[in-house]
Design goal:
alpha+beta, Dipeptide-binding Protein, domain 3, eleven-stranded mixed sheet, three-stranded antiparallel sheet, 15 helices, disordered N terminus
Length: 571
């Protein structure tokens, strides 16, 4: 297939939209007063380049924006540009090594200065600085250079053909930051720029008026926002912390808040809350997967700070019999039933959707304790002293299993600990406040990036519908370490030359069916070689007040992607 006709974003999946989403509700900016949002995982920073935590990325999305993003159907939509570049409109060259973005004229930052191509190029320089650590580095994978021939033109040159050239500056994980504000924050200085990281200047509908990390953010309508009459709300109170139960009740029962994110609760609990009559749950399935990550390095507390979770391999978790037995011992249908109901599905895959990329290799829907024990016995991992714990090279197979504090996750932990005990693996459980666990503080020992444990459980997803960049999170070069200030997307420290080579092949392949085959093979390679144990393909459930209009749940980008269109019903 010709590269031109197979450009993934333009033709094969119909994923390019040329009209930005808009609401019909009109009026003066700020007319509807305050809107109150609650995320039970509290934001710790408003710079998504220094944190891969969803709560940080989404709270920042009210302020800083990408050139293009994905709408509620996964369509690529222009945001700070007039059109999404494609081969057919001349924005992408025929050999797919260059994409040209034409910035919408007249855009200004919230401080009144002009938004230009220099800000876009600076964002690339910031994330790719050799002395810094960037949490979203895979977004800029394969970029050779960024040119700015004039104030409104950005040319991204790739080192090889990119059938999916929509990584840089696209989606909620790759917004544009202001060059003037972050000029002194490059490289190792990035985490030290507290004022910029907590109060970014943006082009979005709101500006930060006060940020209390791990607590509350207040925003005011951006007087320089590009759309007249928007946002409808004059201010936003963004409360963080607590738990999913309290968040759901605050919207659907008490009406204290207008929007609650990520209601990771049992289905009967959500149904009971809805009976309160104040709010409505909304749900949708994207590529969100709850999984257990397996540490490929040694997290021994006895190692030094530059060795712990750096030195490889792990004492026994890289043994195929071990991680496969651990997976076999898990009753995934039961986890779905108790944790998510119809908002969950059993999955054996890292990338469960879109269907063209989903592997059909594995069947993990049936728990097999006997088979797991037999596998470990055959591999020579036995309990030699009769204490119920198998040994590996004379060392007891005892692991620390950590996750964020959440009722569903603690239920999962308790069940999985029991199942693993039945196959001779001792498990210590630990849960960490989500604001800390998903924070990006390089000085904290408790972040999921540091991974000072043997296994850890969480869920994440990716923007848009193409998994190339997301699969790049398993590249050897993306491993968090002291040298990267513990930033990087390869949380498990998985590293295979074969995977890196296959991913490079995916990046150079245009044919949509072949891309699907390669993506599924990369998924299989990661799962088969112990990067993770997938558990549940999760639907995303949030809730909004019955008085809040304009809400469109988006599972392909930030949930708050269209907050400029929200309004108060009846006003």
């Amino acid at each position: 297939m010709n590269l031109k006709t197979a450009l993934l974003g333009a033709v094969a999946l119909g994923l390019v939209s040329t009209v930005a989403h808009a609401a019909d509700h009109e009026g003066e900016r700020g007319r509807d007063g305050e809107v109150r949002i609650i995320y039970w995982q509290a934001p710790s920073i408003l710079n998504p380049y220094l944190s891969s935590g969803t709560k940080d990325i989404e709270s920042a999305s009210l302020v800083i924006e990408p050139l293009a993003r994905y709408d509620e159907n996964g369509n690529l939509t222009p945001w700070l540009v007039d059109d999404v570049p494609t081969v057919s409109n001349g924005g992408v060259n025929e050999d797919l090594t260059q994409i040209t973005w034409n910035i919408t004229p007249g855009l200004i930052w919230s401080d009144g200065t002009a938004f230009t191509s220099a800000d876009v190029k600076f964002t690339y320089d910031y994330c790719t600085h050799p002395e810094g650590g960037c949490a979203q580095a895979t977004k800029y994978e394969g970029v050779e250079s960024v040119e700015t021939p004039d104030d409104l033109t950005v040319i991204v040159n790739f080192s090889r053909p990119q059938p999916n050239p929509y990584g840089p500056f696209v989606g909620n994980e790759a917004p544009i930051i202001q060059a003037a504000q972050f000029a002194d924050c490059l490289g190792a200085a990035a985490p030290e720029c507290t004022e910029a990281n907590f109060n970014p200047i943006g082009t979005g509908p709101f500006v930060v008026t006060e940020f209390k990390p791990n607590d509350v953010i207040t925003y005011a309508a951006n007087d320089n926002y590009r759309v007249d009459g928007k946002p409808a709300f004059a201010s936003v109170t963004f409360k963080g912390g607590g738990d999913a139960t309290a968040a759901g009740r605050a919207v659907m029962e008490t009406g204290e808040f207008d929007y609650a994110w990520n209601l990771q609760l049992a289905p009967d609990v959500i149904a009971q809350m809805q009976e309160g009559g104040k709010g409505t749950p909304v749900a949708g399935f994207g590529p969100l997967v709850e999984r257990i990550m397996l540490n490929h390095t040694n997290p021994d507390p006895g190692l030094g700070p530059d060795e712990r979770s750096v030195i490889r391999p792990h004492p026994f978790l890289q043994e195929p019999a071990v991680y496969k037995a651990m997976s076999m011992a898990i009753d995934r249908p039961l986890l779905v039933e108790i944790g998510y109901g119809q908002a969950g599905r059993v999955t054996c895959n890292w990338v469960p959707v879109p269907q063209i990329y989903a592997s059909t290799t594995f069947d993990c829907s049936t728990q097999d304790i006997a088979g797991a024990n037999a596998m470990l016995d055959e591999a020579g991992f036995v309990d030699s002293d009769g204490d119920g714990i198998r040994e590996a090279n004379g060392v007891p197979m005892s692991i620390l299993y950590q996750t964020s504090t959440n009722a569903v996750r603690q239920d999962f932990q308790a069940l999985i600990k029991q199942w693993w005990s039945e196959i001779g693996i001792e498990t210590e459980l630990r849960n960490i406040d989500a604001s800390v666990f998903f924070g990006g503080d390089p000085g904290s020992p408790d972040t999921f990036q540091k991974f000072y444990a043997d296994v850890e459980m969480y869920a994440n997803t990716f923007s848009g519908t193409d998994p190339q960049t997301y699969l790049g999170n398993a590249l050897c070069s993306k491993i968090p370490s002291p040298d990267s200030q513990w930033q990087g997307e390869n949380i498990s420290r998985f590293c295979m030359e074969e995977f890196d080579a296959l991913h490079a092949e995916l990046a150079a392949t245009a044919d949509i069916e072949e891309r699907g085959r390669l993506a599924a093979e990369l998924n299989d390679m990661a799962v088969e070689n112990g990067k993770m144990i997938p558990l549940v393909h999760r639907g995303r459930i949030s809730a909004h007040a019955n008085s809040l209009g304009g809400v469109v749940l988006n599972v392909w980008d930030s949930e708050l992607w269209n907050i400029a269109d929200w309004y108060r019903i009846g006003n």
